[in-house]
């Protein structure tokens, strides 16, 4: 029998068990299996993926890399994977006679182990916890991914833009932004998305289902992440700006806010000179050019571009004014109106004229004032 050629560097024996350690020629790191070594070569040594390096790889590395990059395709659907066990598990989904079902929700699986893992969502069991922060999770691999947040490790990078991430699946979804691919679409409205779970969450808007509820107040929502952010309202946890007094619950909102101070406007309209610091602001602006007003009031003829504008408008009909001033009896429809009103009490006037000493609370008031300086007086 021909002996298999492998690059075994050390051999450790502990009792009856024997463990072979494979070492990377690039950085001398050691691994227990060929697959782990292959993943390390592919994703840790990005600059070495050329033909010269390929030729210089050991036989173990070549075998492991080719094994990892080999794709298994499903003959029934478009599913692809690099792991043989995954394709076998996937094929069972097409032919499975025995299905394991959750008694609490509609979850189904062909594997008992998956159902066991799923049940932890209902029981609240989270056996894996981070030793740096309070993060807890159901799966060990989720903890391993989380730990990269603390180490700052982002091994997966986009070859088109500067995007980097801690998880391969995040990169896979990111690449669809460049291709414009949105394979999942709603059969009720025109909504399209990249991820299947995004569509599942969206469908709850139509069904009115809100499975996640706050145990402190009456708040309910369609997505677990929304509930997580909501809970911070009760705990008072907020991210704060180091320039002004702005505070927010979401880190991404703070990042968007900081662009106001830096003046960065990375998104621009290709029709007019409009620029902004948020992608959703640009998308909303583009509807001005297309004339699209997909949201309409069912009481009057009001139409608008944005759903949030419609929600604000509806409150005019209902008379609802959920935001009130703690100093006077002022009440309003929107939180931004209350923030603007509070400046009357504080005396704050953030907008000032660069020609005269005029100062005001609202940006529109400053724009109206500037016309005084630009208007040409007619000859008498």
TrEMBL record:
Q: Which of UniProt's keywords are assigned here?
A: DNA-binding, Metal-binding, Nucleus, Repeat, Zinc, Zinc-finger
Provide GO CC annotations from the record. Answer: nucleus
User: What molecular function does GO assign, one term?
Assistant: zinc ion binding
Indicate the segments forming the C2H2-type domain, all copies. Answer: 22-50, 100-127, 128-155, 156-183, 184-211, 212-239, 239-266, 267-294, 295-322, 323-350, 351-378
State the superkingdom: Eukaryota
Q: Which InterPro entries does the record associate with it?
A: Ikaros_C2H2-ZF, Znf-C2H2_CTCF, Znf_C2H2_sf, Znf_C2H2_type
* UniProt subcellular location: Nucleus
Q: Quick check: keyword Zinc in the entry?
A: yes
The alphabetized list of GO BP terms reads: regulation of transcription by RNA polymerase II
**Major localization listed first in the record, in broad terms:** nucleus
For this chain, the family text in UniProt reads:
Belongs to the hunchback C2H2-type zinc-finger protein family.
What name appears for this protein in its UniProt entry? C2H2-type domain-containing protein
